[in-house]
Amino acid sequence: MGSIIADSTVLKSVVPETVSRKKVLKTKLHAEGISMVFNSDGNRVAVLEAIDLKVGEGEFVCVLGPSGCGKSTLLNIIAGFISPTCGQVRIDGDAVRGPDPRRIFVFQERGVFPWLTVEGNIGFGLFKLSKAERRERIAHYVKLVGLQGFEKAYPQELSGGMKQRLEVARALAVNPDVLFMDEPFGALDSITRLTMRGELLRIWRAERKTIVFVTHDIEESIQLADRVVVMSARPARIQRIVNIDISHPRDISSRRYLELRDGIFEQIGLAHKV
Amino acid sequence: MNSLVQPAKWEKYFWPLLAACTFLMLWHFLVKWSHTKIFPSPFNVERGMTELMHKGLLWQYVLDSLRRVASGYLMAAVLAIPLGLLLGWYPGAASVVDPVIQMVRPISPIAWIPLSIVWFGVGDRAATFLIFLASFFPIVVASTNGVRNVPSMYRRAGRNFGLSPVKLIARVIFPAALPQIMIGLRIAFGIAWLVVVAAEMIAVDSGLGYLVIDSRNSGKRYDLVVAAMILIGLTGLGLDVVFRRIEKLKSVRWGFQNES
Amino acid sequence: MIDCFARLRPVAFIVLILTIWHFAIHYQKVHLLPTPLAVAGGVVELAQHGLLVKYVVASLFRVTWGFAGAAILAIPFGLALGWHRRSGMALNPLIQIFRPISPLAWIPISILWFGVGDVSAIFLIFLASFLPLTVTAMNAVASVSPVHINAARNFGLSQSQLVSRVLYPAVAPQLIVGLRITLGVAWLVVVAAEMIAVNSGLGFLIVDSRNAGNRYDLVVAGMVLIGVIGWLLDLGTRSLEKVKSLRWGYSED
What we know:
- The complex is a heterotrimer of chains A (274), B (260) and C (253).
- Chain A is of the alpha/beta class.
- Chain A has helices at 2-24, 71-79, 118-122, 131-144, 160-173, 190-207, 218-224, 255-268, and strands at residues 27-40, 43-56, 60-64, 86-91, 94-95, 103-106, 178-182, 210-215, 227-231, 238-243.
- Chain A has two domains: 25-102 and 178-189 and 209-274, 3-Layer(aba) Sandwich (Rossmann fold); 108-175, no CATH class.
- Chain C has one domain (37-248): Orthogonal Bundle (MetI-like fold).
- In chain C, helix 3 (51-83) runs parallel beside helix 6.
- Chain C is globular, with a radius of gyration of 23 Å.
- The mean pLDDT of chain C is 87.
- Chains in contact: A-C, B-C.
- Chain A binds chain C through residues 79, 81, 98-101, 103-105, 107, 110-111, 113-116, 124-125, 127, 154-156, 174, and chain C through 145, 147-148, 150-151, 153-156, 161, 165-166, 169-170, 172, 244-249, 251, 253.
């Protein structure tokens, strides 16, 4: 009994915040009825089925599912790299017809250009700015992702974590509205991953971008997202959307966290005993 | 590289055919338009080829060239592969021999002709020697690199299972290096094919290279010259395809991540 | 100390070969083929007559023109064929048929069109280099990571910006390797072309020395020069691969 009262007091202080935040959020991105069928040599492979998703401005949404379920395909469609078989994506009301610098995609690995230095990579999309502005921007983002001292280094001299930070800096430098991240920490070791998540949240709070983040890591999704979109296996459908109503910084040992995590385990059909 | 558009299946045949027909038509009209009396049109060449076929020379010359390539090439392979494996296995030996290989390799086999005539006289043996020279170095280098690129964990696993050095080379190193050796064999064969034509132009009296030179010298039969060139191209291409098929065999293919 | 010995070993090996060579000739009754000393003497003789520099320059001149001409045309051509998939599909069979035709098989046609002389030789070298470079460029485009192309499109680059800022840097390492290998081929062909179609150069030296007096010492001297210069050309192009902004293409990944 006592615990319920304690819970509701916790909720009271949290719910108004999330509710009021939700009220303010307008829809940034709307994916309507997205289906994707691949035709390879006469075989039709249905990868996505009737995906309907709304993402609010400034929201951090995770798309969670097992490897190969099609979540990367969904992200590519939303970003405009692939055309869906059915359905449409609208961003700010306009239909998405192709990739656009207002919505930058961060890849899992080897996305940075190996023939450019750190500075060169970050400045890649800044060709419309003056030289002085470019230098300023580059310096700002080098500092933001913590790569000071490595401005003239080439990617092959950087560690995996540093390369991903570089890619995030490159993406942010052009000041996009939306960031699409396709398992960006997947190629890193688990210790670096934890650090990177913290960095990403720090940057997100500083820059307030809308982020759609694809991952297969349940813990990662709960640690990062405002909402987690749980996908089924192929052909992928949205199984459930889970609101993560814990404020940052999130305690990964708190009861609410574990509740949410177990809820998702169950949803995916996993036992939580190894 | 538009990742959004995949060409349809029929296009795989349509575009090459279109390009080939355009090429032939251009050739034909250029010949007609320049009123040349010497350079053959596609029809002349085709008639030349049928003439060769009727005389029975077409297949004979092709087989002659193939025969010469085969003997020189096989000899080179038999000697070069073991040598390459050894050099790859013992890096010390490789560092000693490598400078010599690097300096002898750029000497065109054709430049060896005077010496080969002194040693073997004019004729088939000289030509075979030239082909041997041309094939030898690429195969050695490919075999050496193949061995060098075998990940050390394979070596260690082999030793872990108690294999003697000989068995190690035979059961682990050689299969592991095989994909790269196959590529080297294919490239060496391509070089051998270029050289046999050149060797035949100089030192013998049969074969496709001989046909090229002889058709010109005895009667300015440029239609036969071009016919011979096309035969050289087709035969070389056919052999290259055979090699690539062998590379694709499952027991060899495991080593390929990127097609080349 | 051990390092010193290691460097000396190849030299010792070469000395060993030269010694065997020397004595193999020395103990023959008729000295047709030259000893290493005779070859060295031949080189000196060529230098004294001013022919050494003249012939080397002539060969290099032909290679440079033929190879450079082929590179300037073949690389953009090959990149375009790799980029536009349908053009690549269309021309690939023709390329595959022409490629195995030895440049030397083109000699009659080359003489027909250009006569005997420099232009003929340069044409043959051009032929020898053109298709291999085209194929290298096509393969290089095919190996460009789609991730990089998509990232560039994402940043709003126009097609021409994509090509100049992403495609060219991405294919550069592979192109350089291809250029090095094809330069080696061009060097082989220039020698052969000179043996047949012109009156100067190292290939001509070999043929002429034999025909006009069985001067095998000069024949072998010519061969040695060919080997050394070919080796130097290879070393020179390998050093390009060490440039920092290209080195990424050669590391283990």
